[in-house]
Request: fold
Amino acid sequence: MAKFLLKRLVMMVVTMLCASFLVFAVCEFTPGSVARKSLGPYATQQQVDLLSEKLKANDPLVVRYGRWLGVLVGAIPDPLQDPDTGLNFSDPRGAQYFGNFGYSTLNKLPVNDVIWDRLGNTAILAGLAFLFIVPLSILFGILSGLKEGGKLDRVLSVICITFTSIPEFASSVFLVTLFVILWPILPGTSPLNSDGGWPIGYQLILPVAVLVIYDFGYVARMIRVSMIGVMERPYIRTAILKGMSTRQVVLRHALRNAMIAPFTVLLLQINFLISGVVVTELVFAYPGFGRLILDASLFGDIATLEAATMITVAIAVTTQLLGDLGYMLLDPRIRVK
Reply:
């Protein structure tokens, strides 16, 4: 097990290095100088020239990537915080520390002062949605899979396919029209403050509902297919012939084996709920991670984009590792190598 974990951790580090290099290269080769993109569109030419000299922007790409990586891991100080640049960029953590993502030109703050709060807000939204998506998906998937082709299966399948087919912006508009305009019982925005008179708990209801409606049907369909395959196995028929009730067969034998394949699908929803909920956050003015990425992209905030990409990749490789460990727990026949 220790060898397996070490191997996967090494692969995770290599994956993140490759992803970070690609993102760094793309950001470097987009139109405009590196200094101009770092300082923003309102910096003077003198500031741009001075920073270009400090960043040694004429060095080869690999050398510049090495310096950027050195700032990220805390091996070298951040050149943007050099007093000689006259930029007055400051970070309360200092110019040299592990995890230094640089300075956000959009928010006029260190990236670490912005991105983690936004990520925490999205984590709350994603966590609440996940709490509803998992049980609903399992329930719908089991009920459909037990009676393949039956009336209940057809009804649940229509519900799942319909909900999955509705884009987030459409369901958002529908829910806002229904519960904000026609029946004004919920707020139409979710700024996560009480200035508008609505408690924060009420502000989370509509965004969570949109994510659950959009996502649970797809996962339920995956569980349904897996459940149908498991219920046709010989050991399931044997358990039924021994007189076990349907509830006992499902809980003791079928469910665990049926969840092996959909387990990956469930973990993939974590990536979507963290970085793929831009539409939902934009519609409800939710101060989350996805909206931060969109704003940074539109403004050209390179440091924030690079940090967001690294965090997204880290989440993806972590969920992949959890998926491998989950497979071993669900199916003891799977052995590590």
